[in-house]
Each structure stands twice: as C-alpha cells, then as structure tokens.
Design brief:
By secondary structure, the chain is of the alpha+beta class. Helix 7 packs parallel to helix 10, helix 8 (about 425-435) runs parallel beside helix 9 and helix 10 runs parallel beside helix 12. A hairpin with a 5-residue loop joins strand 36 (about 745-750) and strand 37.
Length: about 850
C-alpha cells in the first residue's frame, strides 16, 4: 500500500487529521506461533513535544504518579494535548483505580487570555459516563466550569495567568483528551454548559414527554422547581424557575464561598440542568440563553479557515457572496452531491470517464458525476478531491455546519474526469472542457447553460496539442480557465496550467511564502493559499492545511460526509476560481482577456517576492477585496465599504524552535492613516521588512529566549491605524533543554497484511521523546506496524482519547516488505490527536476525527 499522489498532476497533497489507519480485523496470535526465520523489523516511536499523558491512568503496566488533589497538580506545557483517564470508585475495568477510584486529575499551566480548553470524553456512549471540566486561578478560586452531558466540555481562559485545570469524573469511567490552547474559540462546541455563559440565572427551558411525566404522579423531585410558563402546542417548551430550596450538592465546597450570589444561582441552574437531563421524561433541557448579533460566518470550522482573511475575503463579502447566475465547472473526481455543505450549489454535471475500470462506478460515460471514491486499497480513504475543491469555491455558508465557501451563492457544475487513484485521460478531460464551454463534444451532450469559469486542480508534465486546442476553444467561448501549477516544488511547466490562455496558480502558506511543494516557472500567473501541513503558525491546534468538504469511505456502508485539511496547488486554484466567480457576479461581462489584464496590472493582487511579476508568485497573491472592487467599478457599480485594517496571521504561535514570523499589515478599502505597532513584551522585537511611508507592509516578529526560564509566555501586539486597531495574540514556549513529549506506555503491533492478524506485540516506554522497538523472527511477507496506548486497560489500543500512530503515518499506513533480511528505520510518530466538536445535530455532519481501535495481544 505505497502512498500515491491521487491526482496525476501531482497538484495536491493530502493532510488528514483522521486517525483511522485501516480496516483491520481484530488481532490475535495465530495458532502456529512464530516461525524460525531470523528476520528483524526495527524502528522507533517518536512523540511530539505537545503530547503528554495523565500521571495516573488505569493501565497496570504504567507507573502511577497521582495528580490529585490540587497540591499534586501535574505541570503541563502550553499548548498541549493530554491523554488521561478518570473514574468514580467501582467504575471501569480492573486496573490501578477500579476500587478506590481516580475521581479527578489536576493540571497546572500558564495560559493567555482567549486560549481554549477542550475536553473530549472518550467513552461518552457508555451508560452513566459523564466528565466535567473546571478551571481555577492560581489562588484556587473557581474561574469557570463546563458541566454538560455530551462528548465535549470546553472553557475559554479569561485573562493571562497561571491556572489549575481539573478534569472531574461526575459519573462512570472514561478516557479523555484535554487539548489546551489548540482549539480556536469558533470551533468549540456550541452547547457547552459553562458557568461563564450568558444566560438568565434560575431559568431553565425544558421539553417534557408529557405522557411519561403524568405517569409519575408521586414524583417529588420536581418540587424544587416552579413552572413559570406552561408548554404550548407549538413548541412544547416549559420555563422552569429554580426554587430557593434546590440542593446544591454537586458543587465543590472549597470554592463556594468565593462566588457571588448571582454566580451561585448560575451554578445551581447548571447543576439542575445536568440532573434534569438524566430523567427519562425530559427530551430536552437547557439554560435560557441570552443572544447577541454577529456578522462573521457561523460555519462550524470557519475558525480554521485562516486562508480567507489572508486574501481579504471577509471584506469582499461586504460587497457580494456571489450570484446564482454564475457557474463554475469543476473538472475533477466528481462530487458528493448529498454532502450537507454542497447540494444547493449544484447544477447538472456529467461523468466523462470512458474507461470502465478507471471509473469505478460500473459503467462509462453517463450523466451522473457522483464521486464513488478513488482509492484502490481497501481501508484507505479516498481523496474526494473534487468535493474538496468544490467546497472551497462554494460551500454553503452561514448554515452553522462545516465550512464557508469563497463564493457561496454561485453554482458548481461537477464534471467527473478523474477516476481511480485520481487519474484521468486527456480524452476524458478534453470532453469535459468542451461540455463546460457549451461546445460540441464526442457524446453530443450539452449543459443547460455553459460555465463561466473552469477550475482544473489537475495536470501533468506532457503538453498535448489536442488538449491545448480544447483550452483555446473554451477561452474563445468566453470561459475563464484556472489550473494548478503543480506540486513538484521545482522550476517546472505543468499542463494545462502552462498553456496560453490558462491562469496558472501557485501556492503560498499562512506566512505568504511559496509553499515548498509549489512549482515555480515562467508561466505562473498568480498565487493563492494552498496550505502547509507541516506547521501550525497560528496555534489553532491544526496543521495549516486548507480545510474543506470531503467524504470518508474507509468502512463498509454509505460514504460518510466530513471535512478535512489538504495542501497543494490544487487547494490554491479554487481560491482564485472563487474570486473570479465573485468578480463575475458583480460584473457579468468580465472576459478572460480582462481577467488576464487585471492580473498583469496588479489591480487584483498583492505583490509578493521580487517587485512585479516573478516566477514564484506570478503577479502576486490574489486579493479578493481588490478583485471584487475592481470588477464592480468596471461594471459601473459602487458599493461603499468602510476602510478596514487587515493583519495576518491573526495570532502567532512560537513553538519551542521557531524564532521568527512575518506579520502583514494592510489597509483595505481606503486609507486609515499611519500604522503604529506597539507591544510591551520584553522577549519580542518587531522590525519593518518591506513597508511603505505609512507603515503598511510586512514586519518581522522575532523572539529571544536566551534570558528566559522554562515556561509559557504570552503577550499582545496592537496594530493601530487611525481609529482602527487589531490585537494579535502571541504565545511562546521556553523549554528546559530539548522539548520532548511523553504519551505514556505504548503497545506496538506487527500486523500481517494478508490475514490482518497481529503476529507480534512489543510494550515500550518513552525517553527523551522516543522509544525503540524490535520484532524478531519475522517471516517473509508484507506487514503494517501500528502503535498506541491503552489507558483504560480494555486491551484495545487507539481508543478515543488514547495515543495512536502507524508507519509511515496514521492516515496512510505503508506496507513493510520483509524479504530474507532485516528491515530497519521503521520510525513514525504517535500522539494524542486534537479533536473537533461537530457542533451540530445534523446526522450527516461527521467530525473531523474518528478512530479505528486495535486489539492488544494478551
């Protein structure tokens, strides 16, 4: 199962935060035991610095270091993922804490205002499992708490300082993952029951099953409430008022005296909601929340879409979100038409894959562009590349789920030309081009209306005159054609991007630098965000990929709908196509020649690299606001937009080794006056890199750790221009020597690739962030190597909340071939993976991460 680039052009790379690593059967020792071969498989497990394990998990193979009560709090870095386990006495499996219980785990960390805590409860589906999350200040006074009954609890740090974090077992036993400083506030669960939330103290909104309620005539537990408002037929909602005699027994007594009367009432309200939620006659219960208006998209993962502010897209949205009369054809792997974030954006498409074997859908050319998946390896996820691209262009926006699209109101024409392994033929792609342009093709089919723009996140190294002829015909029909420059990281021409009349798109990372994989050449026209899955420069807990819509087909049954981060010029291209669609929305007469002219003049870009056009960035980084404004003016329109200050990145995360980050300051939609940058951080310095006379441009932000002791440091850079100001949060770590992670005791499994049975197991611990393992007497054949922890001692590794990894990566395990000799350097990373709440009740909306578990060998 060697990893292959899914698109023939090498125009994108996958970054998956999924942790499922295969569809292996339950593992156990084969009956015939080990063979007599002398072959060995040797390797190392590597732990990232942000991976830490709870000091007192249930696994009896681990050494217990208690982290409760608060005086024994375990010191943790920031940011960090902590894998842990808690249980009330008597709950859980036989292990360290079965009898006496491990009721809570205390951690202590230095944190900055606005940082987040996200607790993911691994066994929430088990009966009676309920964990809560508490936050105390350095004096031990309660700051906030999250006490819901769902899979997630979350809190936001109010001010800079040192805090105690307490993970509490309210009932049952469970693994958990505590993510500190790794989740943007916009991605936190929307239903967290927090003490700090804005709700009316003493008010509770309840929906009862009236039949069940009436059957409990002798139930006195509701005597602590007064029904202020009876349910009506339309909503079924009752308003309950908390009586003064409510028994506040679930609150921690040592902090009760630090609360005001209003806080005590809010606390009692939350605890009453928790207890009411356990009743079988209650179908829904919540606080009586107080809401305020907001203008940014409410899409669940919008907080991870750093690539939109980078091109000033929010300011462009003040003018338009696109027009439904504009159609973008996506020639790719097809579409998941029922994905909850794309269906309303679709017009009729077509499947032009003529090779039945490559198509994978059982037939050849037809009118159904549905993506059936392109993976050829069982258990390995397909790319659903076309759906990812389409989501960037026009995903449903402000629908409270998923992601936002660049031009959410425009239409997508899905044209399937890439099949298995993301490969497609010239013939099939050419037919799709002619179809998109409303021109005659070999199949005699045509769309109801031709596309305005064609997006091709694909390519290859061989020029093709017939292909080029189709491109020319489509352009002459008035279609703007945009394609990916390629991912070889070389000075290399890629086609169709390098054909005359095609807009060739290179990729940049979050720091506006050419992505290392992006091709550069004389035919590159423009740059756009393509992502970088090796870094997390803004500290949001996710690698800096471009997040969009995908599917998950690793398991038997229907394809699940999901979201994930990819990197590549394939991801940069739909940003430009989406911006072109916005331009077409405000200026319907926009022609391909005009678009080219606006690019070459710098009218719709921000210059990067050498002044003027260069081979790395073309004419510069696409600027959505400039582009829409310029198009609108050409069309005679004028939508006034107030000037605003654009600062990117919007937060800075200096990990243990990073010393410098570039900060970009721009005025959007008009002059704001001179720029001033201020900070009061002793270990940080800011120097102009390339700025104009008013101070707009790029600044180098540098840190100096030389005089600092170990710890987490934070501060704020304030950027001011006129009456506008933007605050940029900075977090920085200083470690004592080399920073290493410790995800705890791991079990390494050698799995036979044919039988899917584990033939050997090794138990390892970590020193200085790594651990060695060796399998001896291994028969010739193909194998996978999987590793993970077993904190709850259920004899399965890689449970939710537990550390997990595979060679070479968890998302794409690689076959190891043993053939009469030792196999060395089987090195890979294991870690606790950040998880993201779904934040939605939509049954088709899957969270970004899921897990496959593996049975340990007893």
């Amino acid at each position: 199962m060697v990893f292959r680039e899914i698109v023939n052009s090498n125009s994108f790379k996958i970054f998956l935060t999924f942790v499922i690593v295969g569809n292996f059967a339950a593992c156990g020792l084969p009956n015939d035991g080990l063979n007599d071969s002398e072959n060995k498989v040797n390797g190392r497990l590597l732990a990232p610095s942000y991976a830490v394990i709870d000091g007192d998990v249930n696994d009896t193979e681990t050494r217990v270091v208690p982290n409760h009560p608060a005086t024994n709090a375990q010191t943790i870095p920031n940011p960090v993922n902590v894998g842990g386990y808690v249980n009330v006495a008597g709950a859980g499996r036989n292990g360290h804490s079965k009898t006496a219980g491990d009721p809570d785990d205390y951690y202590v960390a230095d944190m900055a205002a606005g940082q987040t805590l996200l607790l993911t409860i691994g066994d929430i589906g088990n009966a009676g499992v309920d964990l809560d999350l508490y936050l105390y200040d350095s004096n031990g006074s309660l700051v906030d708490k999250s006490v819901g009954t769902s899979k997630y609890e979350s809190l936001i740090v109010p001010t800079n300082g040192r805090y105690y974090i307490d993970v509490v077992a309210y009932s049952g036993a469970s693994n958990y993952l505590l993510s500190v400083g790794l989740t943007p506030t916009s991605a936190l669960p929307q239903d967290s029951l927090r003490l700090s939330s804005d709700f009316t103290p003493g008010d509770i909104l309840v929906k009862f099953d009236q039949n069940m309620l009436q059957a409990k005539s002798d139930d006195t537990s509701l005597n602590h409430f007064t029904i202020q408002q009876s349910p009506n037929d339309a909503t079924g909602i009752s308003l309950l008022k908390l009586n003064d005699d409510f028994p506040s027994t679930a609150f921690r007594a040592e902090s009760l005296n630090t609360l005001t009367e209003a806080q005590k009432l809010k606390n009692d309200t939350l605890m009453a909601i928790k207890e009411l939620s356990r009743r079988d006659d209650v179908t829904h219960v919540q606080p009586n929340y107080i809401y305020k208006s907001f203008a940014v998209p409410n899409d669940q993962y919008y907080g991870y879409q750093w690539h939109y502010p980078l091109i000033n897209l929010p300011q462009a949205w003040d003018i338009t979100n696109g027009d439904s009369n504009v159609i973008v054809a996506v020639i790719d792997t097809g579409i998941l038409s029922q994905h909850p974030d794309v269906p309303t954006q679709l017009v009729s498409g077509y499947d032009f894959i003529s090779d039945v074997d490559r198509a994978g859908d059982g037939d050849g050319v037809d009118n159904n562009p549905e993506d059936v998946g392109d993976s050829i390896t069982p258990g390995q996820i397909s790319s659903f590349h076309g759906t990812h691209v389409a989501g960037t262009i026009a995903a449903n926006t402000n629908n409270s789920i998923g992601v936002a699209g660049v031009a959410s109101n425009v239409k997508i024409m899905p044209l399937r030309a890439l099949g298995k392994e993301g490969q497609g033929s010239s013939l099939d792609i050419i037919q799709a081009i002619y179809y998109a342009a409303g021109l005659s093709n070999d199949y005699g089919v045509s769309p109801d209306r031709k596309a305005d723009i064609i997006n091709m996140s694909l390519g290859g190294s061989n020029p093709d005159p017939i292909y080029e002829q189709a491109i020319g015909a489509a352009r002459n029909a008035g279609v703007i054609i945009i394609a990916a420059a390629g991912n070889d990281g070389k000075n290399l021409l890629s086609y169709p991007a390098s054909y005359s009349g095609v807009v060739s798109v290179a990729a940049v990372d979050l720091n506006r630098q050419r992505a290392t994989y992006s091709n550069y050449c004389s035919e590159v026209d423009v740059a756009a965000p393509g992502g970088d899955t090796t870094n997390d420069l803004n500290g949001d807990g996710k690698k800096d990929g471009v997040i969009s819509t995908i599917g998950d087909d690793r398991k038997q049954g229907p394809i699940l709908y999901a979201y994930n981060g990819y990197e590549g010029t394939s991801m940069a291209t739909p940003h430009v196509a989406g911006v072109a669609a916005l331009m077409k929305s405000v200026y319907p007469d926009l022609t391909p020649a005009e678009f080219d002219s606006m690019l070459s003049s710098g009218e719709i870009t921000t210059d990067l690299g050498s002044p003027g056009r260069d081979d790395e960035y073309g004419h510069g980084l696409i600027d959505a606001y400039k582009a829409v404004r310029a198009a609108q003016q050409r069309g005679g329109g004028n939508t006034p937009v107030d000037p605003s200050l654009s600062v990117n990145p919007q937060s800075l995360n200096f990990s243990s080794n990073l010393q410098s980050i570039t900060l970009y300051v721009e005025a959007v939609a008009g002059s704001l006056g001179n720029v001033q940058l201020s900070e009061n951080i002793d270990w940080l310095s800011i120097s102009p890199a390339q700025v104009d006379n008013s101070g707009y441009g790029s600044y180098s932000v540098n840190i100096d750790r030389s005089e600092l002791s170990q710890g987490t440091y934070n501060g704020t850079i304030t950027v001011t221009a006129g009456t506008s100001n933007v605050s940029v949060q900075v977090i920085m770590q200083v470690m004592d020597g080399v920073q290493t992670g410790n995800p705890g005791t791991h079990y390494v499994l050698l799995i036979d690739a044919i039988t899917n049975i584990a033939v050997q197991q090794r138990q390892v611990d970590f020193t200085n962030g790594n651990s060695s393992f060796s399998f001896k007497e291994v028969s010739d054949g193909d194998y996978f190597v999987i590793a993970g922890s077993d904190m709850d001692l259920d004899n399965s590794i890689c449970d939710s909340g537990e550390s997990c990894g595979a060679y070479t990566t968890a998302a794409n395990p690689t076959l190891i071939n043993v053939d009469s000799g030792d196999v060395n350097d089987i090195n890979f990373t294991v870690s606790f993976q950040s998880q993201t709440p779904s934040g939605s009740s939509h049954t088709a909306d899957q969270p970004i991460e899921e897990r496959q578990t593996y049975q340990r060998i007893d």
